Amino acid sequence: MGDAAQTLGTSTFERMKAMILDGTLEPGAPLREKNFADRLGVSRTPVREAISQLVSEGFAERATSGTPVVSSISLADIMEILHVRSLLECEAARKAALSNGKKDDLLELRAKIVGFLDGIRPNSEAHFALDVQLHLAIARNAGSRLLAELIEGLKVKTRMYGQGSIPERFEPGCHEHLAIIDAIVSGEPENAAEAMRFHLKKVRESIISHINHPF
């Protein structure tokens, strides 16, 4: 495959993934090659490659009908994901607080969060992007590339379930992030781990409260 074909396949994948993450494509939506080739203005080959990559990364799944569909994540799945995130990210926060690095990246993100609170509220995409940057910066400060990769993958799955931010979580979430950063920068490992644990507990509670299930 040439570079141009690879680039087209990658860009098609990114466009389709973005449509899943922002809720344009809902769980269970069929991913038919011809429909998306027409919709995205490309041939069926890059769409076929993009769908295969979406399946391999868990964004889509093969349905009994044979047509791939956007993956659905159950409440049990999201609770397990948040449990594993808590295990990983509390340890990441603790290790980051013990590290001897300058932590300039965390201080820059802290300033942006304060700016969000003091200024115009960002849209959900900008807020989510900063949220990802912060959690990955904490993992990097912990000194583990593998930890950062695992956390990033789990955050994407959390995002797939939430389909965007929960508005009333914006301000509390910002203050929770500030508490995590401050504990890490101050070199307080147990406080950093507890601040992360509290933050993910609140994320879990907010998701549960926004689920309209019959039980």
UniProtKB/TrEMBL annotation:
PROSITE patterns reported for this sequence: HTH_GNTR
Domain HTH gntR-type: 6-73
Pfam family, one: FCD
One GO MF term: DNA-binding transcription factor activity
Key word DNA-binding present: yes
InterPro entries attached to this UniProt entry: GntR_C, TF_FadR/GntR_C, Tscrpt_reg_HTH_GntR, WH-like_DNA-bd_sf, WH_DNA-bd_sf
SMART domains referenced in this protein's UniProt entry, alphabetically: FCD, HTH_GNTR
CDD domains the record matches: WHTH_GntR
Keywords: DNA-binding, Transcription, Transcription regulation
PANTHER family per UniProt: TRANSCRIPTIONAL REGULATOR, GNTR FAMILY, UXU OPERON TRANSCRIPTIONAL REGULATOR
Protein name: DNA-binding GntR family transcriptional regulator
Phylogenetic placement of the source organism: Bacteria, Pseudomonadati, Pseudomonadota, Alphaproteobacteria, Rhodobacterales
